[in-house]
Amino acid sequence: MSEQKLEQIRANDRVSFSVQTQGSGPPVLYLHGFGGLACVDFLNLLAAEHTVYAPEMPGVGESSGLHDLRDTWELVLAYQDLLDALGLEDVVVVGHSVGGMIAAELAANAPGSVRELVLVSPMGVFVETAPGRDPFALLPSEWCLLFADQESETAQRFADPEGTIDERVEILVDRATAAEAAAKFLFPLPDRGLARRLYRIRARTLIVAGELDTVVPVENVERFRTGISNAEVRAVADAAHMLPLERPELLAETVAGFLAGTAASGGERMVAHG
Amino acid sequence: MKFIAFNLMPYRELPADFEKSYSSVWVDIPRRLYDPVQGAQMYMDYLEELELAVDLGYDAVGVNEHHQNAYGMMPSPNLWAASLARKVRESESTSLMVLGNSLALYNPPVRVAEEFAMLDALSGGRLIAGFPTGSSQDVNYSYGINPAELRDRYHEAHDLIIKAWAAKDIFAFNGTYTQLRYVNLWPRLIQEPRPPVWVPGGGSLETYDFALTNGYNFSYLSFYGYKYAKSLMDMFWKRADELGVERNPFQGAFAQFVLVSESDEQAREEYEEHVMYFYRKCMHIDPHYVEAPGYRSARSTKNVLKARLEGTSRSGRDVLKGGFGWDELRAAGYIIAGSPETVRNELEAAARSLNVANVALLLQVGSAPHELTCKNTTLFAKEVMPALRGVFSEFDPTDYWPAAAQPATQ
């Protein structure tokens, strides 16, 4: 396990990010989704070959400023300001879920600042005929439904954390505030116009999607693939929305393969798209 | 005391297997369960029931706002209030209470200021303006308001409305959610600079402070009755003490099912079936839509979670999950039911225990037919109301009730 450094970085007058840094090598920016930075195994594996910068989203953990952000535009600018503060240019960005949406927005907004893009179960587009499951109407006890194997220890602990009452309350409140942060940019539908901006993305892009993901149905993944000029899709059987938590090894291998330019390796199977 | 005749306007013909075969009375209840012909008849019945209350001298008739909801078929409270306004104006001392408009749902919010000004005119200056945040089911899931922005939108709308009512000249408003270069309300209120404002709320400290510092009434409107309301109203009054605000019972209100008949036994005979319809079917609420993320502040979420995990608090809904019947609902104070004497005694004790002088009376319950609701409304007005009028008469209702509706004797 690589050593972690936790820093508070002020991006601008409104937003201050808590950024977890680990590993060494070329930089990767990881933008979390549901579950925040609980995907410890995935981050450790990614950090074996890279310096991983993992900011928490405004409103999540120690990152502040959610209620001062008016819209997605200001959210994207806050991340752009963070990249400037970290001195990162032309960086690899990996984003999961709502983090996938932010990653794609960053790459569309400033195409020169994102070298390569990995979107894991990305939110941010909505297809009326395939609405999928409403993630904001899930009860905390149902968060295991975001996993393919709902009986697994990981899924069960995610839905029903262990510990004293105070510890559990803290985890559940953190989870609720994280859901609020995501809701600010995804409620009632995860569509702030990203599909209209995808054409601007120049970065080589990999989209990783769980075949059993009910929150991001395959139709949404297809919308991302066709909207981005240089995108390929890796569909993962037996996985749902929580790839960084449910399949950390496979995801890390897939990302590493993609970044090494050997995208065909690592994944379980490649889905052919016409 | 002051008595407000409320009517939730439930759909009375939900199928017998409703709570077993369908997931919710709200948000995603199937449209096919609504029969337009029967629904229209129910609207007529409910309008007549409220008109009867005006004739019988209730202090106010009250309407509220719900969406995609089979226990509250009132998506537009202002339409309903407009239907009642002329009758209210012609009455001796009845007020028109809209409790209220969920502010974040009106775009731009000056719509609320305008329509309330019209209602104030139509009712002869007898409007009471209610400013609820609205339930998550209504505002988030049915109307799509972002839960992370809801409170902000509410407060911005409130500030705009209050300013628009009081303004002497046209002004510009540059808000986060509303931008208007020319705010200029036509018509003006009869009750300038504002009508009495009532704020329905639950147990949040933010709402207590909002009501107390602005001189608004705080209404705890639940279907769980006065005993359940006790701890919340106690906290409200404690907060009033801390802020140096007088404990004026007219600054509070609570909702209560009240069911009167000739005797306690007859009350049970007449109302039990309809009470059960309400608590079994109308309270068949899908937990998925109770609270969108951010609907509650992090501080409130923490308090609620902790109390739940420690088992120190049960919501009104939790209580209903267990077996309950007429006796349990009466004992828990969810309903006050019985002979006029029983109801007089219990309602006075309830009001005194809460230190609250305004009661939002739920006189129609569940599937109760028109005739029964009219009987209840009449018996209450004739046999209960007169005896309780004098309760809390040492306090001044002026700040919370329209001047035009005060009886000459007061």
Quick description:
The complex is a heterodimer of chains A (about 270) and B (about 400). Chain A is of the alpha/beta class and about 270 residues long.
How does this model look, in words?
The complex is a heterodimer of chains A (274) and B (410). With 274 residues, chain A is α/β, with parallel strands linked by helices. Chain A contains eight helices and nine strands. Chain A has a nine-stranded mixed beta sheet, sandwiched between helices. In chain A, α3 links the parallel β5 (91-96) and β6 (114-120). The termini of chain A are far apart. Residues 263-274 of chain A have low confidence and may be disordered. With 410 residues, chain B is α/β, with parallel strands linked by helices. Chain B has 14 helices and eleven strands. Chain B has helices at 18-21, 36-55, 77-90, 110-122, 136-142, 150-166, 205-214, 225-242, 264-282, 298-310, 316-321, 326-331, 340-354, 370-388; strands at residues 2-6, 60-63, 95-98, 127-130, 171-174, 179-183, 197-200, 217-220, 252-260, 335-338, 358-362. An eight-stranded parallel β-barrel of chain B has the order 1-2-3-4-7-8-9-11, surrounded by eight helices. The mean pLDDT of chain B is 95. Classes of the chains: A alpha/beta (274), B alpha/beta (410). At the A-B interface, α5 of A face α10 of B.
